[in-house]
Amino acid sequence: MIEFITGDLFQLIWNGLFVGSFYALVALGYSMVYGIIKLLNFAHGDIYMLGSFIAFVLLGSVIGFLGTASLPILLLVLLITMILTGGIGVLIERVAYRPLRNSPRLAVLITAVGVSFTLEYGVRQIFGPAPEVFPFRLSGESVEVLGGRVSVPQIVLMVIAALLMWVLQLYVMRSKEGRAMRAIALDPRATLLMGVNVNRVISRTFFIGSALAGAAGVMAGAYYGSIDFLMGFTIGLKAFTAAVIGGIGNLYGAMLGGLVLGLLESFGTFVLGGEWRDVFTFACLILFLSIRPTGILGARIAERM
Amino acid sequence: MTNTPRGRRVLASASIAAAAAIILAGCAGGIAGGGGSDADESGPIKLGLLAPFSGSESVFGEYMQNGAQLAVDEINSDGGVNGRELELVAEDDACDATASVAAANKLVAAGIEGSVGGYCSGATLPTLPIFSEAGIPMVIPAANSNKLVEAGLDNVFLINGTGTQQAAATLEYALKVGATRVAVLNDNTDYSKDLAVSFVEQAEEDGTLEVVLDQSVTPGEKDYSANVNNVMSSNPDFVVWTGYYQEGALITRQLVDAGYDGPILVGDGSVDRKFAEIAGEGYTDNVVATFTQTPDMLEGAGDWIGDYEEAFGSEPGPYSTQSYDAVRVMAEAMTDAGSTDTDAVIEALRGLDGFPIFSGPLTFTPEGTLSEGGFAIVSIDADGTFVLKDDLQS
């Protein structure tokens, strides 16, 4: 009996952490962009979708050429996709957001929604509304851990996600460019006066955030196997929630928020049933924000980012 | 927030829209000058087709439009109906109750004399009073929620088996393979929920097997591990999924990965070649589905598939045949009636006796549903197509 409970418990935690690491990767982009220019980039989830479609095309041509694919090839595709989605993120900022930088916040928000729809239905025009099947699947054995099932692909993906977040953390906290980002989050005008090229730093932020979302998209494609033009919508909303739970604008908050959201969903489904999951999760969000409006790690308001 | 695809088909919005529809329909009657029956008698007979061409279900709109267009072309090349040509007018309902109301009014204003559309039950429901007010008979090819029947309107005919009939076929098969503990998952849309509720009711009434889990999942996601975990905890020997293939294939894969090795039965919304592709090789050996028989399962339908591919350059998909049949049924009734007069056409639809359609000979019940559900059990073969496994006739 006790073993049954620990087995279930471990499985719930593992499931939650696995989904949560996807949320965290996407939430990071949300949070960084908000931290720096106070924009809720609703098109961010669609960058995740674009990432999976770019990898779909790349992998498809690699497989057409070599006849097969493997994990190293997937990692290479992941890298190329990250660069491409990063570039698209920069382009979107340049075309859609920068001209509106000094407009009312609402105008930029609506533009972001517009960008989101443009990306979704643009992809729909090219690939059609039916889901596409990802050409390469991560597959592998499942192992029993503490009575729960953990599969090798899950471990691989979580390691990749953790690595990406670790590198990002190093970059933002240790490098000169990272310091510039944090400075802009603190006070854009003063940073400008200090001689920092604010536009370049903002572009870089969009690049990094979009690259991470693209990476999550590739990973989702390789793990779940089906991609569609609306797949970014739900995860975008979830990542936004994760960012808010963790404390929007805060780097560690986004990571923690993603994991917490994954766990809330996992336990909510188990205790209350699937149909109550979103009610439970979002009720927690409301409760959370009314008790702690800045999110879990939002207290360090003096230095957001 | 933005207009979310999730929850588009929830009943709450459907009923609000239905209320709005009744009000709008009053106005529309005035604009359209009484609707179909008064339309110009010399021009083509316009048939309206509401289907999703945008949004999450948009993949089905094209299948339906092509199927219907094929029938229209065939009938026109045979001389049309009562000496008049048929013309198909398609509108996008986006599988959304609000959009479908607007689209239905547009069709009424365009002067259609029959409706041969309706895919999402939640989006089709609020259009019933609009077409009813305007005196337009409806032959609904795909939507099959019991709520459409319960509306009790005499202009509404369903040529897809209803949820109740499909649920009965599901139960019949579960009993046949000796299932004792059944877990049921639905995706909270009208169609899916309806099927699940109906199955659970019939299973409880029958009493032979136990429903150990009856829950909903959120459509449009990729990770269903939390729901799968609940299924595994309930320890079932038979799993029923009543939603669409996009989620069904993911759930199947994740169930098998979690160690489930019993049968998984899916509803007709999951019958698509993509199901096996998404689930992946080796994951669909235990998957069966309830389905009305499709062209490739029927004798002599090879020609039909060939015609379809020639006309549209793509393979027919789910509900292509039903939409094709909806047009033929409507045309047959209009021919029998000798006019497009509302009452005469409805009378003629009721009078159809054994009219051949893909799912078998068609005779309507007094409620306007098929007298024979026509559901069979299909399984997935090695190359991913659904093939007939058990026609449930014995």
Automatic annotation (TrEMBL), chain A:
Cellular component annotations (GO), alphabetically ordered: plasma membrane
Keywords linked to the UniProt accession: Amino-acid transport, Cell inner membrane, Cell membrane, Membrane, Transmembrane, Transmembrane helix, Transport
Gene Ontology BP, a term: L-isoleucine import across plasma membrane
Keyword Cell membrane applies: yes
MF-aspect GO terms: L-isoleucine transmembrane transporter activity; L-leucine transmembrane transporter activity; L-phenylalanine transmembrane transporter activity; L-valine transmembrane transporter activity
Transmembrane segments: 12-35, 47-67, 73-92, 104-123, 152-172, 201-223
Entry membrane topology: Multi-pass membrane protein
InterPro entries assigned to the protein according to its UniProt record, in alphabetical order: ABC_transp_permease, BCAA_transport_permease
Localization: Cell membrane
PANTHER family attached to this UniProt entry: BRANCHED-CHAIN AMINO ACID TRANSPORT SYSTEM PERMEASE PROTEIN LIVH, HIGH-AFFINITY BRANCHED-CHAIN AMINO ACID TRANSPORT SYSTEM PERMEASE PROTEIN LIVH
Protein family per UniProt: Belongs to the binding-protein-dependent transport system permease family. LivHM subfamily.
The protein's name: Branched-chain amino acid transport system permease protein
Source organism of this protein record: Agromyces terreus
UniProtKB/TrEMBL annotation, chain B:
Claim: Signal is one of the keywords in the record: yes
Residue stretches spanning the membrane: none
Cleaved signal peptide residues: 1-25
Annotated protein name in UniProt: Branched-chain amino acid transport system substrate-binding protein
Protein's organism: Agromyces terreus
Family under the similarity heading: Belongs to the leucine-binding protein family.
GO terms (BP aspect): amino acid transport
Any Pfam family: Peripla_BP_6
UniProt keyword list: Amino-acid transport, Signal, Transport
SUPFAM superfamilies in the cross-refs: Periplasmic binding protein-like I (SSF53822)
Domain (Leucine-binding protein): residue spans on this chain: 44-384
InterPro entries with a match to the protein in the record: BCAA_transport (IPR051010), Leu-bd (IPR028081), Leu_Ile_Val-bd (IPR000709), Peripla_BP_I (IPR028082)
Coiled-coil spans in chain: none
